[in-house]
Hints:
By secondary structure, the chain is mainly beta. The protein has one helix spanning 32-39, and strands spanning 4-5, 11-12, 17-20, 45-47, 50-51, 57-66, 69-77, 82-84.
Amino acid sequence: MSASRDRNGIPVSVGTSVRVVSISVSLEWLSPEEVVRVRSMEGEVFSVYEIDQWGNAWVEKWWHEGDGKATSHSLGLASSEMEVVPDVPAPNPSFNPDGFAAG
């Protein structure tokens, strides 16, 4: 596991609460509905569930679609795309039956 830091140089590890401040990766390969969902993650706070070998911090959001169906998106955030939010507990990334990730 590599080390990760937010845009202010603050260390990030699994369980750290981070705000998605931007999404710089191209989303052109996603459907318009998926782009809206992924973009909705900007400004929200999530709990980091993984730090990959390149130091990207991974976060996830779930949407309830009815009839027992759910969709999720994960983002691997670079340092410039996140900031640690020390005083705000991040939601558990597990499925939320109300269809909205807290944050």
